[in-house]
Amino acid sequence: MSEKPIHFHPDGQEALVELLFQLADDDFLLAYRGSEWLGLAPHIEEDIAFSSISQDTMGHATMYYQLLEDLGCGSADELAHARPASARRNAVLLERANGPGHYLREPRYDWAFTVVRQYFYTQAKRVRLESLTKSSYAPLAEVAAKIQVELHYHLLHWHTWFVQLTNAPLEARTRMTKAIQDVAADFAGVLTLGAKGTEMVRWGLIDEEKVLTENTIAALAPAFAEVGLDWPMPFGMKHGNGRNGEHTPDLDEALATLSEVYRAVPHAIW
């Protein structure tokens, strides 16, 4: 990252800030959902691998929140922990609970849903990062290039799980097929740039939504051919558009847990 923040054109800064909140909040919430699998993953090797991926993803969110701090939007810790659900810009798909129960009380999480959500999101994230490396805001382009290195391994991991489970017989394939439809029903929320998308594109911050969507579909399609499944289009926003501040009770629950310690001692150095 640049040693000194590069100030963006004032007329385009609102779009830049909106984009950064989308990027940060997406990774922040999905990293949290991933962390809830600690001790619950199918086997110990996956427990370690998934924990590492979630830690990386939380680190990516931190880098985006730091860019927002550099732009004068508040401290990175405050932006991550103190903002209400209505101010969050993450896609609704990423806030949704892993399944019934609670990670401390009879969790009955859905591994198929988790694998599909992680794989779809990681492909979309890879496409988005490729675009962001050409962003007109240099600090964002630098962060995107750094994240790309780690994401390569995340994608290999989730592609392996996606293919192996979907190609498995009987219950595994049935559950994966159901999970694909479930994820697809909210996946448009990951792909949208929200109300300020046109401004983001106009200022050269990121490619237009149509291009990102087409590239994500192109990235996902080979895996569907590999497992012999029909394409799950169209994507939707069944549970709301998080880019517009529309969220589910799952987000309230997640934020209450995530911010519990921070709110108890808000002036501590984290």
From TrEMBL:
An example Gene Ontology CC term for this record: cytosol
GO biological process annotation, one example: phenylacetate catabolic process
Protein name listed in UniProt: Phenylacetate-CoA oxygenase, PaaI subunit
